[in-house]
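INTERNAL TRANSFER SHEET
From: sequence group
To: structure group
Subject: Acetyl-CoA acyltransferase

Please process the attached sequence and return the structure record in the designated field. Keep the field labels unchanged so the import script can parse them.
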Amino acid sequence: MRDAVIVEAVRTPVGRRNGGLSGVHPVDLSAHILTSLVERTGVAPELVDDVIWGCVQQVGEQANNIARNAVLTAGWPESVPGTSVDRQCGSSQQSVHFAAAGLVSGQYDVVVAGGVESMSRVPMGTSMIDANPYGDGFLQRYGIAMANQGVGAEIIAERWGLSRQRLDEFSLASHEKAAAAIDGGRFDAQIAPYTLPDGTVVAIDEGVRRGGTVEGLAKLKTVFKEDGVIHAGNSSQISDGAAGLLMMTSEKAAELGLTPIARVHTAVLAGDDPVAMLTAPIPATVKALKKSGLNPEEIGAYEVNEAFAPVPLAWLAEIGAPDKALNPNGGAIALGHPLGGSGARIMTTLVHHMRDNGIRYGLQTMCEGGGMANATIIELL
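Return from structure group:
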């Protein structure tokens, strides 16, 4: 039986908005990941059947099929194709799903899945400037002209009774866990440092803040609702970064003399209310667990994207997973959220964490624009 295994997973550091990676073209960031995968595994690029690359704002420097442009920029043979995917924040997690499906079905033997977003260079919302992507039917159905993720986060906080202090405490913990991971060298093996033209090496995630306090966060102004709870300190950061995974069948890995790290055990999708927008990780996780036959206690590590603090906290309340298993190395509140690259960044972090700690099963899920979510269960090999 054909399967889909991950033989390598690598990411750039996540750069702050206008930080160390802001001068790097997103195609060059992507090409850096492709080059790193080849260098780490010794796999000849001409063996790659496709490069599936997530990217949300496919406009400007990220337009015109960034996947193919990255392949050519990396110096790979012109015979290697590439395609770009937009499932909003879950774009590069969806890339992994597409890659796995292609491997299992026999369309691929070797494939790269990943993604990129340079939010410094192509700001969020650029593709919607002077345009409303929703038709009149959306207004008629939902009573609003356009859905807003920040407002959705406020809806979730109210629905699940999440106070500002609870959200802020969770956010501070994200920074603390990420700082501990950096200090402990837990990200070193998964990061491919980027050397800038002036020789500066960007090697560490730039968004992590140390020494924060609940009292300090309490001074920040809420953004989406005057008497609300969502502010910059308990939201994901605007970031630059890329990540990718080299995937193949077990049979192909054996043929190439490679040892797989993990296999894609279960991959599902779910949709939910597009106005609250960020709740779909809950039904996606339920669906993944049911399909896999696993229970929450059998999953040793969970990654739930921290788009806003209410998202993983509402998820935790509904799924009942162990607190300590959730985002053990911090999440997007601390590390950043380079939209189209986040799914692959999170999966890279998850796969390395599982290997480092001997964890058999890991589950990743993330909310997506339009009220959707991917959920993926990975099994350590």
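Handover comment: The chain has a mean pLDDT of 97. The CA atoms of residues 253 and 259 lie 7 Å apart.
Transfer complete.
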